[in-house]
Amino acid sequence: MTISLNAASLLNGNGIDVNSLVDQVQSQESGQIQVWQQEQTDLQTQATALNSINTDLTNLATAVRALSDPLGALSTVSATSSMPAILTASAQNTAGAGNHTVVVSALASQGTLYTDAIAGGADVSFLPSGATGGDLKVQVGTTIEDIPITAGTNDTLNTLASYINQQSTQNKWGVTATVLNDASGARLAIYSQNTGAPGALSLSANATTGTLYTADLSDPDSVSILPEGETSGDIQLQIGGGRGTIDDIPITAGSNDTLTTLASYINTQSTQSNWGVMATVVQDSGGYHLAITTQTKGPAGSLAFSSNNTLLTTIANPATNLKFEAAVGGTNATLTIDGIPFSSTSNTVTGAIPGVTLNLVSAEPNVPLQLSIGPDVTQASNAISTFVTAYNALVSAINQQYTVNTTTNSEGPLGSDGSLRQLQSSLLNDIAYSPVQNGDLVNLVSLGITVNDDGTLSIGTAPDGRTLNDILGADPGEVQNFFQNASNTGFANQFESDLNNLTDPSQGILNLDLAQNNTQQSDLSDEISNLQDQLATQKQQLIQEYSQVNATLEEYPYLLAEITAQLGNILPTSSNTSPNEGTTTSSSSSTSSQS
Which of 23, 111, 327, 358 has CB atoms 3.0–4.6 Å from 199's, for a disulfide? Predict the structure, then answer.
């Protein structure tokens, strides 16, 4: 490339445009970078197209694999109920084909236990006046769960529901408690999380704690609690349940063997030994009884006689103010299959028909329904349609690369890619494959799948006039044998084998192409980077050199002026006096003689 400079402009003191001159010097070499960058852009466009086609190839491999899988869509079994509002079902591949008559007599239900409404609402204590605690025992299935009540902690409906839910979560009781509010007031409801007998609920205990009552005697002062003829006895008072303390109360005739003297003795010992209880004699319609109370709340305040050889007997503590209704639910599902009775704790029944799961929806004791079990034509047809769709997407993407753009008169970015031609040829060979010894189904055409002029597939009718669904419905086994068999010679078996090679991560035909493309892009990036580094170094050198030249050129007018001035001082100046007439100067004479 020729760079021209204006001499007149250079000598007038303006100098040169250093950066512009350097850019002109480097323009030829930097033009190579643009060439390489365009090559990079082309490679990136090709890589995008390759990745897209590779994705289509992977999708096809997935669709073919579904047809070659022995447990896949072609072997699926469906279970169809004649009355889905009563029963639905699903079947595994191992289920045997057949028809069954089913009658659903009852559904499995969850157990429910609930109380009457509490006066005052969900935040009022349900313990009777004076009671410091209570105890509920709820049976869940065959297990009894203890629910101790403590005044001020869980003695309202809201706090009790929260306590039950917490304990159920921590200890896996399998119940959920909630507070119901309606026109009658607030009630506690406990629901089992399981159905059938394991979810049956019942109340086995409901009592207050904190007070121990004895049976009535006729007189508190004269009637001895010792058996006739006995002069002594012993009562052991247990405070705080099984983990609490036991305080011994020895009984002596004439000393503390009546209700009045025993109450006095207990109060004295309680004060002296810090038992934390108080005994009183209470009169009611039946006579007189002893009441021992504690101010300790909850389970720690439970009282009982752990040992007693006197005539004094205890009676059950009064219940809390929670009035429970009879439990409901918690019953098993019942049904008959072909006349055989079955019971199930769940409405999802397995094992009654091998390989089939029954879902009981509603009970109709007098309505028999039909359950048909057989090959799932819909899933098989969908799997084949998915294969055709995936194949067509891949073939169409390949065809697009060979389509000539009328505007640019060029093919797609991969039009000259030999790997794509190889792939196209391999696919055409695969769809033309014909399994041996498979009856009437010898190729795709016999299934009603034909090849179009552009290489894509269409699902229509077979030469005998049947559709794909007709063939699947008539002989699903033969269709499955066409695509797959034990010797791996089926259509899908062979296609999958080829696709495994074509999609191999390291040796797959398009993956190799992509690897080469990436290498070329990387090499170009290195070349561009290296040349850019060289040009950057060269540019600094040129700027330095041309800056010195520019400085000289900018100084030229000043140097010329200085030289002119110096020359003016050296050369003689001419006189303003005119020579005399007839006189000739030396320089003139010299000039004349020369002429």
Answer: 111
